[in-house]
Amino acid sequence: MTTSAAYVFGPGATESPAATKKTTTTATDAAEAAACKADPRYPKRQLRGVWIATVKNIDWPSRAGLGQARQKAEYVKILDSAVKRNLNAVFVQVRPTSDALYRSSLEPWSQYLTGTPGKDPGWDPLPFLIEEAHKRNLEFHAWFNPYRAAESADVSKLPADHPARKHRDWTVKYGGGLYYNPGLPQVREHVTKVITDVVSRYDVDGVHFDDYFYPYPGGGGTFDDKAAFAKYGKDQKLADWRRGNVNKLVAQVDQAVHDTKNYVKFGISPFGIWRNKSNDPDGSATAGMSAYDSIYADARAWIKAGTVDYVAPQLYWPRGFKAADYKALTSWWAGAVEDTDVQLYIGQALYQVGTKTNPAWARPGELSAHLTINQRYKQVDGDIYFSAKQLLTNPLGAIDLVAKEHYSRPALIPLMDDRGGEAPATPADAKAAGSTVSWKPSDGARAYAVYRVPKSGKTCHTTDARNLVAVVTDTSYTAKEPGTFLITSLDRTHHESKAVKVKTG
């Protein structure tokens, strides 16, 4: 689809249990927190992510057929670019079209690795992708497209063992592509099985869906699910039945993910407009496409049901855009998650910066201004940027400006009580040798936070990140200059231990 369509519909158009164990708060911690007023410029916890799209080789690999070494080098370059900006999460598309960028017995190898659907690339990229992210203290979220079966409607082009070829009755041809029919229970079972397989075999931190559910309108023709509707629709209206189908899959995946590994998060990045106020009093003050009515994605239902851990609406429009004003939509989504356990991250249109879709995108500071708006809403827990390609090209210097104005300090991952976890033990045997601080590994720790104590001695480290200088995965830190430091341990979901104090020479 064209760039203008991408502007309207978001990146997809171009692609586009253990109960939580609370950490005990000591009297000292409480006194410190009371003495410190949180500085919104340095949030203690904030998700900062980037989408890495593989479909059509948008971000990685840069083209199909590259050798293993080149694929690895390109990926590491993306991660290092993320770390440079103090990001802390990557959302990597591991299943773009009912294919796999990992070794799977359920679906064939992706053509975006080798250029040929089903061709074995000679290695399993996923362990490497995850390990390299974790080395850099980046959460790894496995991004799946649930319903897109193939870019081409010609089934004969698919490998013989492709599910869409083996089960042609699962599919619907639409707009030149092939989709799985969301109305079929066997489709929901297959998608859930694919996701459960990945969660069980690989060390992922999250499972992620983007905005693709029923196909976006404008593809031509009618989505022909009449037979499934006649069989399963009962006395429902077609639109309600379709939304119900999506809701069932979301709930099913949510349950399966958490039954397999409770700490793994499940979230969705829906299209930025749920409904407009003109067609629903609960909608936003917008005049764009409605995800509820056009692609049958009812994000409010998922939030109310608690079948997602987070939503990351794609707010790919600038401030002042009449049909979909960023400010109006941020306010609406903050209200949608208020008083729920569902976290809110904002999908940011890094890919729009420097384009001519709207004069606002010619302003280097537009994205940074979005994050300033976010500070008004306590419900906003972070941002995810589309996409990694622009993280590397840095159009108009916009992402560097975001990093300078908003990410000058690292941030811990926001906690999710339902995902369990507990603070590891405080780092033991902490000592300094010259400018290097070291300590022994803490059982259950995946990373360690390092704070520099200011001359005033007032660290505020339990309140915000003003003194957070690093989050490291090894057991040492080399300071740029002498000083006093606090070291804490973090589990995989970033529950934080008490601090140990160390002074360098």
From TrEMBL:
SUPFAM superfamilies, A to Z: (Trans)glycosidases
Q: Name one Pfam family in it.
A: GHL10
Q: Please give the coiled-coil regions recorded for this protein.
A: none
Q: List the InterPro entries.
A: Divisome_Glycosyl_Hydrolase, GH, GHL10, Ig-like_fold
User: What are the top taxonomic ranks of the organism?
Assistant: Bacteria, Bacillati, Actinomycetota, Actinomycetes, Streptosporangiales
Name of the protein in question: Glycoside hydrolase family 10 protein
Q: Where is the Glycosyl hydrolase-like domain?
A: 46-362
Keyword terms, alphabetized? Hydrolase, Signal
One GO term in the molecular function aspect is: hydrolase activity
